[in-house]
């Protein structure tokens, strides 16, 4: 089936950023073999309940097509289903919101944002399925994007039957299988947590099973002919129509959902556009760019500090503060360090190599969903560097000494 097209400039939507910045974790991103530098370079695929949506993007056009499992829809059905896909694309990416206008407003209000706006254009908040969003961000606790993606995809492939298979567009001999996201009734079963532990979910396994069971017990698992979502999923979707405070209160009843996870769900699936999810990484951004004071040592994210940070960001960005926060958060990701940097404008590469990796790179379990921004070195680190440079400056004659002579000279304190 051929692709349909929508005129959408990348200033309004950048798939390369939006689908990789830690909002959604089920998109398959497949490189294309092409010599057309102005055309699509990747295909993006997502499995819904009854179809797989495939997207490609050029500088000014979004291409989309839908693949269905057998039996294939008839021509009248196909026209209706393609219209459904178009409506889904519009809703999922919230294309009714003028992102360029929002960027303009944020740049006027915030000089820091203005520095990032051109390089990180096209980043908008997705309007995801709330149930999938809840489970995904339960997985995000003490985790990183790559690992969350693997966990969520393993969950789908294990608990949902294969909907269909599609070939790799760059290698037709290779194919990929696609699985829908499992409903609460499936993940509420008693043995789910044990299975999830074998899949590497750790303590999050019990959180997911208990949350699913709570939803099913509280709101049911029945479905209707005109709505394939279970009753508990429909209840979650209904939180879009209540106040932010009321929706947050309901989400906090779920096992494994704290303030940050609840706020991620509020922002990314429940239409609460003003909500800024806060963690220690966001705190570092606030210290680095927005005048927040940082304490010495490790900071505990207390409710008071959380509220102060949220209020600070809201005062800077306004009613779409959560959207602006996503741009700044993406700009601070290590994976986006070279994003949209041309060779002529890129900073010079450092010649020194760190002797050891950052602790966050060594401890996979210790990472959060989004990597910690680089911290400003403390006075101790600066003073050691200055002292080392001074010693070298005072002793240029050591350059031609042997190692043994240097050691002897340092021990005796002699000058030759």
From TrEMBL:
Domain HhH-GPD: 139-333
Residue span of region Disordered: 342-381
Reactions the enzyme catalyzes: 2'-deoxyribonucleotide-(2'-deoxyribose 5'-phosphate)-2'-deoxyribonucleotide-DNA = a 3'-end 2'-deoxyribonucleotide-(2,3-dehydro-2,3-deoxyribose 5'-phosphate)-DNA + a 5'-end 5'-phospho-2'-deoxyribonucleoside-DNA + H(+)
EC annotation from Swiss-Prot or TrEMBL: 4.2.99.18
Principal location: nucleus
GO molecular function: 8-oxo-7,8-dihydroguanine DNA N-glycosylase activity; class I DNA-(apurinic or apyrimidinic site) endonuclease activity; damaged DNA binding
InterPro entries linked: DNA_glycosylase (IPR011257), HhH-GPD_domain (IPR003265), HhH_base_excis_C (IPR023170), OGG_N (IPR012904), Oxidative_DNA_repair_enzyme (IPR052054)
Biased composition annotated in UniProt, kind: Low complexity: 342-351
Keywords: DNA damage, DNA repair, Glycosidase, Hydrolase, Lyase, Multifunctional enzyme, Nucleus
GO BP terms, alphabetized: base-excision repair, AP site formation; nucleotide-excision repair
GO annotation, cellular component aspect: nucleus
Basic and acidic residues bias locations: 358-368
Domain of life: Eukaryota
Location(s) in or outside the cell: Nucleus
Pfam family, one: HhH-GPD
Gene3D superfamilies with a match to the protein in the record: 3.30.310.40, Helix-hairpin-Helix base-excision DNA repair enzymes (C-terminal), Hypothetical protein, domain 2
Top EC class for this record: lyase
The keyword DNA damage is annotated on this UniProt entry: yes
Keyword flag Nucleus: yes
UniProt similarity note: Belongs to the type-1 OGG1 family.
Record-given protein name: DNA-(apurinic or apyrimidinic site) lyase
Source species of the chain: Macrolepiota fuliginosa MF-IS2
């Amino acid at each position: 089936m051929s692709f349909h097209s929508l005129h959408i400039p990348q200033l309004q939507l950048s798939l390369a950023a939006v689908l990789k910045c830690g909002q959604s974790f089920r998109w398959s991103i497949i490189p294309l073999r092409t010599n057309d530098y102005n055309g699509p370079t990747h295909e993006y695929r997502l499995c819904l309940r009854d179809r797989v949506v495939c997207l490609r993007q050029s500088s000014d056009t979004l291409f989309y097509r839908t693949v269905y499992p057998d039996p294939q829809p008839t021509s009248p059905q196909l026209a209706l289903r393609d219209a459904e896909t178009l409506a889904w694309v519009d809703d999922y990416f919230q294309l009714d919101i003028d992102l360029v206008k929002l960027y303009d407003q944020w740049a006027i209000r915030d000089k820091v944002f203005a520095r990032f706006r051109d390089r990180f254009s096209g980043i908008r908040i997705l309007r995801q399925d709330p149930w999938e969003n809840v489970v995904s961000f339960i997985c995000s606790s003490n985790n990183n994007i790559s690992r969350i993606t693997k966990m969520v995809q393993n969950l789908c492939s294990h608990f949902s039957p294969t909907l269909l298979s599609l070939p790799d567009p760059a290698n037709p001999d290779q194919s990929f299988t696609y699985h829908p996201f499992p409903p609460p009734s499936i993940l509420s079963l008693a043995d789910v947590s044990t299975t999830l532990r074998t899949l590497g979910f750790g303590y999050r396994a019990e959180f997911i099973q208990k949350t699913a069971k709570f939803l099913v017990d509280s709101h049911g698992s029945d479905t209707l002919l005109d709505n394939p979502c279970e009753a508990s999923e429909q209840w979650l979707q209904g939180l879009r129509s209540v106040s932010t405070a009321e929706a947050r209160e309901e989400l906090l009843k779920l096992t494994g959902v704290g303030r940050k996870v609840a706020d991620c769900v509020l922002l990314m699936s429940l239409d609460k556009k003003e909500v800024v999810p806060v963690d220690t990484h966001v705190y570092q951004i606030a210290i680095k760019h927005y005048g927040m004071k940082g304490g010495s040592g490790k900071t505990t994210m207390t409710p008071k500090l959380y509220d102060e940070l949220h209020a600070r960001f809201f005062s800077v960005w306004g009613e779409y503060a959560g959207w602006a926060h996503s741009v700044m958060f993406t700009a601070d990701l290590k994976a986006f360090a070279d994003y949209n940097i041309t060779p002529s404008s890129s900073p010079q590469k450092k010649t020194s190599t760190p002797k050891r990796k950052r602790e966050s790179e060594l401890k996979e379990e210790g990472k959060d969903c989004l990597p910690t921004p680089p911290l400003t070195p403390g006075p101790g680190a600066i003073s050691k560097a200055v002292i080392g440079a001074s010693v070298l400056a005072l002793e240029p004659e050591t350059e031609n000494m042997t190692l043994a002579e240097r050691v002897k000279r340092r021990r005796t304190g002699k000058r030759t």
